[in-house]
Amino acid sequence: MTREREVVVLGAGMHPWGKWGRNFVEYGITAAQAALADAGLDWRDIQYVAGADTIRNGYPGFVAGATFAQALGWTGARVSSSYAACASGSQAIANARANILAGLVDVALVVGADAAPKGFFAPVGGDRPDDPDWVRFHVLGATNPTYFGLYARRRIDLYGATVEDFAKVKVKNAKNGLHNPNARYKKAFTLEDVAASPVVADPLRLMDICATSDGAAAVVLCSKEFAAKRTTNPVRISAVSTVTPTFPSAVIEMPDIATDSSAAVQPNDLSFRASLAHAAYEEAGLGPEDLSLAEVYDLSTALELDWIEDLAICGRGEAEKLLRDGATEVTGRIPVNASGGLGSFGEAVPAQAIAQVCELTWQLRGQAGARQVANAKVGITANQGLFGHGSSIIVTR
Amino acid sequence: MKDHKPVVPGWFTTDDEDFRLLGTRCTACGTVFFPRQDTFCKNPACAGTEFEELKLSGRGTVWSYTNAGYRPPAPYVSDPDVEWVPFTIVAVQLAEEGMIVLGQAEPGITVDDLTVGAEVEIVPGVLYETEDQVFTTWKFKPTGASA
Ligand SMILES: [Zn+2]
């Protein structure tokens, strides 16, 4: 393992997910203070603040790092703000990590928070035929669930998945979320509940698709030297992959209405999602066989199954078998979304990738309570958003 | 009669006899683009700056399909006073171009009429109408053949 390239997660904190009707800054500050307390640090100890942006809360959201720094009280810390759709939180983590690994700072605070609108995410206003995000809504009526529906249908037609398999993902994640104080939905669901919910994007129903939420997550990252004085059992970030797709990208992805053409160049063997995890494994010097657990971006139930294969935990078309065998339960061979996943949280875009790292941190410290994965040593996150953004982070102890 | 106008100019022919999507091809590397690309080539190994317009294949195979169970938000145009009827969205693989293109299915085609691998053709259709204009688009229609 490439130990010299690691940073330590000294603290983790969250503001519970939900629809609280308050300003995103409040949520961010709650999460930041929780992460600082967990790290045993004072805000004034922080040398670098990395904010993950929200684009739905005006100018303060576009400069989230400075917004949080000002709210906590200006200290003269260095600051950055990142927007990378659903991977914004990971890019903020990547910024903080790079500054620590470069020796520019010893300790950094990463914060992402959102106050989300109700219903489908829609593009920002105005007539913009050059913006694919505007085009897909205007010309096709293609929402985010449209894409999830396309992927889910392929699992049915190619691999023999059933809608009951998808519902099983929801039931599993809801069960995990029951034990997570930061989850939005703390309620058990049955297969019948899922089947009774209305179709949003065939074959997916309302309960197969993650909602939008308010929420915030924060981590305190530091160098190993800084951590050595404060903890004897550090949880470390061993890889942060934020690679782009490679041309030609052969899978239809949000918000595009067409893929790249492979008329001139053959597509890479690895899909974009698989390449995110591949780069993380390479950077950490680890493989899927080393994993204790995975936190994946279950924007839909069926997408969790895609991710399991993208992480190379099993071959293509084999994720349903893992699910049916109980391997992805908290007590199974490779627990997936022990936190409850997006199914139990809903999506708070800039906070979500940071929340995945919070969960892995608590799991690897053995602090995850009733959802604890036994003897967790290596965890991976996976996440994907619009416009070729995605991330995969490996956390180890 | 209302004036007919493509929802996006230059993306498809206005000839109902031989209706096709219009793309461009990089004259240097042969990569095809839809939506059309006229200034720079997205192939990282290509510095091409010249593009020729081409008609994309009139038929393709279903890569996947889904529907819109709920009314999509603006800028999708629909009358909020009319009861919502789901439309079907199809992702279609064009073999020659090596690409997948999304489109709505013809009205009346539901997900039950489709299967991955089935052949579809690209046909002209109407996206929405205003008081004085009809906005046209492309639609997919199953041919009944399986590829
Ligand atoms: Zn070219």
TrEMBL record, chain A:
Pfam families linked: Thiolase_C_1, Thiolase_N
Record GO terms (molecular function): acyltransferase activity, transferring groups other than amino-acyl groups
Limits of the Thiolase C-terminal domain: 276-395
Segments forming domain Thiolase N-terminal: 7-224
InterPro entries (alphabetical): Thiolase (IPR002155), Thiolase-like (IPR016039), Thiolase_C_2 (IPR055140), Thiolase_N (IPR020616)
Protein name (record): Lipid-transfer protein
Protein source organism: Yinghuangia soli
TrEMBL record, chain B:
Chain ranges of the ChsH2 C-terminal OB-fold domain: 56-123
All copies of domain ChsH2 rubredoxin-like zinc ribbon, residue ranges: 19-52
SUPFAM superfamilies, alphabetized: Nucleic acid-binding proteins
One Pfam family in the UniProt entry: OB_ChsH2_C
InterPro entries according to UniProt: ChsH2_C (IPR002878), ChsH2_Znr (IPR022002), NA-bd_OB-fold (IPR012340), Thioester_dehydratase-like (IPR052513)
Lineage top rank: taxon: Bacteria
PANTHER family to which the protein is assigned, alphabetical: BLR3430 PROTEIN (PTHR34075:SF5)
Protein name (database record): Zinc ribbon domain-containing protein
